[in-house]
From TrEMBL:
Gene3D superfamilies: q2cbj1_9rhob like domain. Its cofactor is L-ascorbate. Residues 225-324 form the Fe2OG dioxygenase domain. Pfam families: OGFOD2-like (PF25238). The keyword Metal-binding applies. GO terms for molecular function: dioxygenase activity; iron ion binding; L-ascorbic acid binding; oxidoreductase activity, acting on paired donors, with incorporation or reduction of molecular oxygen. It comes from Dovyalis caffra. Keywords: Dioxygenase, Iron, Metal-binding, Oxidoreductase. PROSITE patterns: FE2OG_OXY (PS51471). This is Fe2OG dioxygenase domain-containing protein. Residues 1-20 are annotated as: Disordered.
Length: 330
């Protein structure tokens, strides 16, 4: 912004903090930049969102003090987020604070990434080698664009299920109304709301992203920077099946945690854009997958799928919707 005498006028946000004149985010992620953590700051948006967006700051802003970066990014989020969305975010932040101030974790070890205790050795070896060859050595591609592989140790699956059950007891005892995992599943828990956001973000960034860069580069696999992590439950007195749909993600990780169940197969019916999401499937696009505890399914969010009825027992799945700011802006 310039004044009539040709000098540049300093821009300020609503708090009187100077902002660089008319700066904008760059269109591509700076992968070499290591963003700061904002976990200790009181923010209107997720701290992980600020860490993700920091990689899109102009080069001359990367060395600014952290509070300056927060004010700049907050200004952008405020200007470009609809009022209704800002209100929703603020309400959700208060909702999450209510949970985190009262809920006492049962298994604190699941809240911090401990790769040796979480993952099976074959998966860790493939990630450490970080090549397409190493990834293909542990996975199966039973139909184009759907990858399955062993990922979690049984002990971790058991602990996470037990933690979810502890969350649900806390909800019941407090008569606290929690937000459903998504618009289709009525039973389950949004893990991010109970303090697992940081751990799941690291899971996405360090363990899902390396594979997504290889197998889904055209749909944001190179630039995954945010997520929605939740557990869903199927069986007696739970959801029974899940209708035909696409996910609100670029890439989805779906891992069966257990328990004993019969039925509940995933069915896939091909990738479609919004305009053609309800078109008929071709025979080569039809594929059914039977869940195995500890085994993951990785696929595009736009890969149409659903879940058949769980006929007996109970099935619990961890689902992480991985998203890309770059793709969302296109």
């Amino acid at each position: 912004m310039s004044t009539n005498d040709g000098t540049q006028k300093v821009r300020e946000n609503g708090n009187g903090v100077e902002l660089p004149p008319m700066q904008r985010l760059i269109p591509f992620e700076n992968k070499e930049h290591n963003p700061e953590s904002y976990e200790d700051m009181q923010l209107d948006y997720s701290p992980l969102l600020f860490s993700s967006l920091e990689r899109y700051l102009p080069p001359n802003m990367l060395s600014l003090p952290r509070d300056r970066k927060v004010h700049f990014l907050s200004d952008i989020l405020t200007r470009y987020s609809p009022q209704g969305e800002r209100t929703r975010v603020q309400k959700h932040r208060k909702y999450r604070q209510q949970i985190l101030s009262s809920y006492e974790p049962r298994h604190k070890e699941v809240y911090t990434m401990n790769a040796a205790n979480f993952f099976v050795p074959s998966f860790l070896k493939a990630i450490s080698e970080n090549t397409e060859e190493s990834f293909r050595s542990i996975l199966v591609e039973p139909t184009p664009g759907v990858y399955t592989f062993e990922v979690f140790q049984p002990k971790f699956c058991e602990m996470l299920i037990d933690e979810v059950e502890s969350m649900e007891r806390w909800v019941h005892d407090r008569r606290f109304h929690i937000i459903c995992p998504n618009t289709m599943n009525k039973y389950g828990v949004v893990l991010d709301d109970f303090g697992l956001e940081t751990m799941l973000h690291k899971l996405m960034n360090d363990y899902i992203c390396p594979m997504s860069r290889v197998f889904f580069p055209e749909v944001g696999g190179l630039t995954l920077d945010s997520h929605h992590g939740f557990v869903v439950e199927y069986g007696v007195n739970r959801d029974t099946e899940l209708g035909f749909h696409v996910d609100d993600s670029e890439v989805t990780l779906n891992v069966c945690l257990g328990e004993k169940f019969y039925g509940g197969d995933l069915f896939f019916r091909g990738v479609r854009c919004d305009k053609h999401v309800n078109t008929e499937s071709q025979s080569e696009e039809v594929f059914d997958y039977a869940h195995v505890p500890g085994r993951a399914v990785l696929h595009r969010g736009r890969h149409r799928h659903g879940a058949r009825a769980t006929i007996s027992g109970n099935r619990v799945n961890l689902v992480i919707w991985c998203r890309s700011y770059c793709i969302d802006q296109d």
